[in-house]
Amino acid sequence: MNVLNRILVVLGLLIALPLGIALCVAPMPILGAMGQGLNNLVSWLDTTPALARILLGILFALAWMVICLLLLILELRRPPRRMVRVERVDGGVVEVNLKTITDHIAYELEQLPGVLRARSRASVRRNAVAVEVEVDTAGDMAVPAQASQIVDVVRHVVEEKVGVRLAQPPQVRMHVAPAPAMIRRPVEGPPSGNSL
């Protein structure tokens, strides 16, 4: 929202600056032109049928209301937190970036046997971290044992290595590669040909 605020302020200033200077330097022609434009608008609206005028007014009012509500929601919405407090630090307050946590988790998980690739996401919930992990694994590993090992590694990294509290148990999604297919060899029969 900060970027949108800056864009709106810059655009508003770029429009207001020349208009304000022109209005201060030559108020009579500018105010006269504005009055003439308003008179033209009133005469056009007067010749428009009442039903069309009402529908057009409702349409513009709805569009204005939607724009204002969107800007209000964007302004009041709190940005997602990207930092979380480290629990076990004496003598001060330390916060760590969520990317640090996700990078550590991915690195540690990719060191496990059978893990081909690991991706993780983290979000802050009441000064704790909720972690979601996606792991691609080889098909020759036992899924329950490997899943338990993955959860243990995530817990260890978040709580012990980084020192942050988990808000809930880690959510793990495993994509298990198919087991390698057995290569079937043709059954060897008696040699073809005439034996003497």
Can you put this structure into words, describing what you see?
A hairpin with a 2-residue loop joins strand 3 and strand 4 (128-137). The protein is α+β, with helices and mostly antiparallel strands and 196 residues long. The protein has helices at residues 2-25, 27-47, 50-76, 98-110, 143-162, and strands spanning 83-85, 95-97, 115-125, 128-137, 171-176. It folds into two domains: 2-76, no CATH class; 83-176, Alpha-Beta Plaits (2-Layer Sandwich). The radius of gyration is 34 Å and the shape is elongated.
SSE blueprint:
Layout lengths: L1 H24 L1 H21 L2 H27 L6 E3 L9 E3 H13 L4 E11 L2 E10 L5 H20 L8 E6 L20
Parallel strand pairs: 4-5
Antiparallel strand pairs: 1-2, 3-4
Helix pairs in contact: 1-2, 4-5
CATH superfamily of the largest domain: Cation efflux protein, cytoplasmic domain
Order of helices and strands: HHHEEHEEHE
Mean pLDDT: 83
Strand order, sheet with most strands:
3-4-5
SS-based class: alpha+beta
Unreliable spans are: none
The biggest beta sheet is recorded as: 3 strands, mixed
Strand content: 15-25%
Radius of gyration: 34 Å
Number of helices: 5
Strand runs, count: 5
Number of domains: 2
Share of helix among residues? 40-55%
Amino-to-carboxy terminus distance: 92 Å
CATH class label of the largest domain: Alpha Beta
What is the level-2 CATH architecture name of the largest domain?
2-Layer Sandwich
Shape: elongated
